[in-house]
Amino acid sequence: MTTKQPLSHLDWLEAEAIHILREVAGQCANPVLLFSGGKDSLCILRLAEKAFRPGRFPFPLMHIDTGHNYQEVVNFRDQRAAELGERLIVRSVEDSMKRGTVVLKTPDEPRNKHQSVTLLEAIEEFGFDCCIGGARRDEEKARAKERIMSFRDEFGQWDPKNQRPELWNLFNARVHKGENIRAFPISNWTEMDVWQYIEREKLELPSIYFAHQRDIVMRHGAIFPVNVSLPSGEVINQPKAGEEVINMQVRFRTVGDVTCTAPVISDADDVSKIVVETATTTITERGATRLDDQTSDASMEQRKKEGYF
Amino acid sequence: MTTPHNDSLLRFMTCGSVDDGKSTLIGRLLYDTKTILADTLNNIARTSQKRGMEAVDLSLLTDGLQAEREQGITIDVAYRYFSTGTRKYIIADAPGHEQYTRNMVTAASTANLAIILIDARKGVLTQTRRHSYLAHLVGIPHIVVAVNKMDLVNYDQATYEKIKADYIAFATEIGLAQARDIKFLPMSALNGDMLVDRLDNMNWYQGETLLDILEAAPAAHSDQAEPFRFPVQFVCRPHDSANPELHDFRGFMGRVESGSIAVGDDVTVLPNGYQSKVKAIQLGNELLQSAQTEQSITLLLEDEIDTSRGDMIVKTSQAPEAVKQIEAHVCWLSETPLSPARTYIVRHTTRESKAKIGSIHYKVDVNTLEQQATSDLKMNDIARVSFKLAQPLMVDSYDKNRATGAFIVIDESSNNTVGAGMIV
Description:
Structural class of chain B: alpha+beta
Oligomer: heterodimer
CATH superfamily of the largest domain in chain A: HUPs
CATH class of the largest domain in chain A: Alpha Beta
Distance between the termini of chain B: 48 Å
Number of domains of chain B: 3
Structural class of chain A: alpha/beta
C-alpha cells in the first residue's frame, strides 16, 4: 500500500462541495440553486458541473433580482446560464413591490433585505424544498454558526438556538411540506479560497470584479459609486449636493445591490493580482464593501432570522 | 506577504470552557497568523474599551450570536478559519460545559486533532476527563494537551510536569494514551507564549510550539490502509438522445469514504452483491486512473448493473458485513428524550433504514466514566444501545472506519437529528 497523500486544500474543499451538492440532489425532491452572477455562485456553478456532468443539473438556477443590479452582472448571469444550457428563473423584488408585499420606507432604501420576501414568494410559487446558496462562514459572525444544511420553518425563519446538529458528513435535509433547507456547499471556503479556485479553474467573471475607471464620491467614509446605469435604463446613485465626483480606478470585491455595495481602490486587473491583493488586504470583505451590514453588530443575524439567505 | 499555497488542510477542535482561555487561544491563533483584519480588530478594540479593559481582549474575536451575548454564554459550535500559507485550518470551536456534550461530539465528529486546554492553576479537572473521554469516543486521532495560563504560575516547570504526569495516568486508565497520539505543551494564550512564537519565559521547554504541532499533524484521519467504501449518492443517466455516446452512460456518483480504487479493480455492489469491474473514474471532465479517500468522483462499471442511491460499491475482496442489527455508542442530541417504544430513522452513509431500539445496555456518566443502568436517554447522555433495522446496512466498526461506522438518528415526526451513533 502506498503512503496516503492528503488532498490539497482546494481539492478537499471542492470534493466536500461536490458531496454536498449531490446530497441535495439525492435527498431533496425539488431543489433550486440561487445564482446571482457573483463570484461565489460562479464557483458553485463550476462545482455543479463537476458534480453532475455529463447529466443536466438536477435543479434550475434562480436569481432574486432587486432591480438594482449592475448591468454587467445581469448580462453575465444570462450569458453563463445560456452557456450551461440550464434553466434560469428570475424573480424580481420590483414585482413584489407591485404586489404590495414589499413596501420600501424610502424610494432609495437598499433592497437587499427585501429579497427575503421575494425569495419566500418564489419558494412557494415553485414548491422548492431546498435553496442552494453561496454563503460562507468566514463572511460574518452569524454565519460562523450556520449549518451546511440549515433548516428554515414555514416562514423562512432561521432559529440560531434550535439548529439541527450536523455530524460527520451525514446531512439531514428532511423537511415537511412548506419547510425549507438552505444548503451552503462552500460554507468552509474563505474569500481567499474562492479566488484561488477561480484562478485554478480559470473561471470567467463579470468585468466589474476587475480594476476599472468609475465615478465615485466619498460618503460616510466609504467609496460610493455614483451615476450608475441600471438594466432598466434608469440612472441611480446621484451625487448629493456638495459631494465631489471623482473618477477613480476601483474594483468590486462583492457584487450586489447598486445602492449598498461599495468598490475598493485597486489596480488588480486580473485574477492573479486579485489573489495577491486578497492576501495583503487589511479590511474584511463585508467591512469594506457592504454598507448594509454595518447598521448594527447583529444585522446579518436579524436578517437571517427573517428568511434571508 | 506571498500568496498562500496551502498544501493541505487540517480540521481541529478546541476543548475547554471560557475560563480555560479557549477564546483567547483561538483569538491569539487568528491574530498571530494575521487572519484578523484591521476593521475587525478596530471593532473589538472599541468593545474592549467600552467594557473598561486596558488591552484588546482577543477572546472577543469569537464572540458569537446576539442570543449568546445576551446570555453571556456560547451555545453552539462555531467554525473559524485561518491559514499559514502552507496549510489551511478549520477550527471547530465548541462550548465546554457539561450540558453541551452534544456540541462537543458534533465538533469532534469532523476533527482530526483536539486541543485540550488545562488551566495550569487548576490541573486535571473533571471537565478535562470529560473532554478527553469524548475526544477518545469520537475517535480523534491526535490529542494536544495544552497547559495554559503558565504566566499565572510563574512559568513553573514543576507545575507543568506534575499536570503532565497526572494526565498521562488518567489517559492510560481510559485507554486514550494507548490508542492515540498525545502531545503536551506549556502555554500562555494571553501573552502568546508557545503558540506561534516561543518568547523567552519558558526556555526550559524545548518541544514544539502549538503552531509547529498543528503544521506537522497528519491531515488524514487514519494512517492505516482502509478498505474501499463508496456509498452511491446519485446515479447519472443523461438520456441525451442527441448524443449517442451518452445513450448508455450510467455514472455512479459519490465520495470515496475510505480506501482507494483504480480502473480495472473488481468491485461488488451491496447489498445486492452484483459484481463488476471499474471501467472508468471521472472527476468533472478529467479521467482518473485511480481515486482515494475524500475524493468526490463518478464511477463507471463494465457491466450494466441496477444500482441506486444508498447502495455501496466496495472492492470484491474487502466487502463489509450487511447487518440488520447494530450495537453502538449513542450520544442523544435532542431535548425530547429517546423513547424505546418508538420507531426512528437511522441514516448511515447515503442509506436510511427504519430502526427500533433493541435495548439500552448502560449509560456513561461523562464525569466519572461510570456505567449506569437506564431505561431512557436524555439530551447529552451517552449510552450503549442496540438497534434492530428494517433494511440491511453495510457497516464497519467505528474504530476501524469513521465513515462507515457512524450514523445519525432522525425523529420521523419532527425530522430532527436526535442522536449520533458510533458502531461498536
